[in-house]
What does this fold into?
Amino acid sequence: MNPPCPTIAKYLLLLVSVILLSPLLSTPEAQAIPAFARKYDVNCTVCHTRAPRLNRTGERFLENGYQLPGTEDGGTTKKFRLGDLTLDDVTNYLGFRMRGNILQTTHYARHASGTNIDGNPEDRTEFGFPEVFSLFTAGTVTNNVGFFAEIESNLGEDETGVERAFLTFNNIGQHDWGHLRIGKFDPSAYSSYATLRQQFELVGDNSVDNGSFMLPTMNRIGLTPAAFASKFHGLFDRSGTAILPTAPSLFHAVAEMGLDIHGRPFGEWFLYQVGILNGANEPFGDSNNPKDWYVMTRFDLAQSDYFSANFSGFAYFGSNNAKVSTMADVSWSRYGFATNVRYYMVDIYAAFVVDHIANLPNSFNNTFDETATGLTVEANVLATDRLLLGIRFDHLDAGGLRTQRTSNSLLALIAKFYVRSNIALFLRDDINLRPAQGGRTPERNFRNAFFVGADVAF
Amino acid sequence: MPFSWAPMWRFRKPLPLKHVMLYGGVLAYLVCSWPVWALATATPRHDESLSRGKALYEKACLLCHGRTGEGNGPDAFYLGAYSAPRPQDFTGAEFKFRSTASGELPTDADLFQTITKGIPGFMPAFRGLSEADRWDIVRYIQSFATVNQETASTPILLPPGPLPATPESIARGQEVYTLLDCAKCHGPQATKPGGLYAQGKLRDRRDLPILPLDLRHLSSFKNGHRPQEIAQSILTGLDGTPMASFRETLSAQPEDIWHLVNYLISLSRSP
It folds into this structure.
């Protein structure tokens, strides 16, 4: 028997109620100055539209290796000297972030009760806060030398470890000519639509690993931007672990190891970025000698009248950076465009990305789609000082094994209420736009996921 | 027949649609980027200091204050969103942080000081720039001015002080706080905003609601929390906000300003 219709109306009613009641939670006090802002004595809104999303100042601060835009203040601001050491107070570079879903409920078109059967998962409502806990330290060692390290514990994915860690060497040659990053970092950090610091937190898939070079059993697809996703069914990393089609990868990986350089040598309107990485999904070391490399350019348009816009184009060239089920190496590349337009309270993002697999073994010629695309469009509106509303559309035209590949279209809605600029409560609903097409694949079976969560940074 | 997205996005062999999309996209990208290149390289030349100031302003200041200096940069809205503050408008006549009388433009040194000190909560201190760089920015900021002031701006003189923060001085300061009706905005005992805020009557020059300063937190005093800085804010007022100048009101008993300052500083030590 099919479950009752997803109770979207109930959630929407709850969402509206929270929005209407939200002013009761607000207080007329000044907003707190949380962790990362301590060093510069400023509010979060100096660098974020609303945390965690960066505004242009925040983007430039990041580009400049955690130094104020236009300056090389890494060795001076809030520093004290001990011999040849230049030190910060520990509070000026230590912070934490705790986030997750206080309540999460997922509905499927066909579901089992009590048992979890392949392609027939059970509806669930569960508590999960805090799902992700991050301890991070970032700042400058001295002028033009910065660092970032983030240790993350993700209970949902049962993983704890160094999420990102890198050094930056900034303003090489002349101011803004070149900034070097070395370590484990997010390649898309400077593009128009970056993988991290989104209002819609990346929600991983729900799947069961079936062993090396075996396809996993997927219960629910990941709720991640389709443009950033892996997009292919039947791809494996070099250790034989399946790469899930909705996991962010390549240029949009959460973190990969390598080095890159970026800068604005011609002024504020143009940014370049060139990087080289061990490869896709390489946790540590390089199991395959050839490297992946990428190039990105970004153009920043008008910067006045509360308006700004930019667009980026990138190409990521992979070399033997993935495998298919026969353990043969393939080369997985990615090309795409992204844009961001911001006008007063409206903040719009879009990305269209094409992935391509080269060097596919002949035996896969008629069974494997070597091209896949992803489109993501997102809009955020700051409705009041404390309430942010967002909507995101994702369309993934999947590639890979034709027996497995199923495209999907999702719509996500979010209402985020900022009790303080560093404390947010949110309601989020992810809706499958194509459940009526039937089928037992996780792309079709998934109907709706509703989250009530919190995001606190200090 | 059910609606399907597939034909919109799927590229199949032997159709070269994906190539058309990709190369078309690259071409469109280059075409779109050309006007940006053309505009950026068409910048006229200025004298050296102004050019340096412009280059620095575009890196460090433009994102909040905007290309035209009107305080409407791309990040300006999100600073306070539907409430004050928004970034300073350099084209107008109303500057908050000045050593000059209300209605006058700030001195060069005032602008230099604001860049150097920053504004707690809303603007970082740009001490990381060299003094010469900061003066270049001052020069460029002044080029936005559309207001012609007949006489040069001159700082007002503070009365001799500050005075020691004795219990008597603090008690007198509390009386002055009442006499000047500070509670209307800052609330009695400064524990919560006053009645004018509750009535929605406190608005800045952009007609945005403005939250009065919480006087119990010295660290949030936007013009600094040294006695001289607090006294200056009270005497000059913060133009463009409801914070008026009390220079004339206090002219009969100039030393009262220091008693008031002592009282305000004492509030931050209250439990």
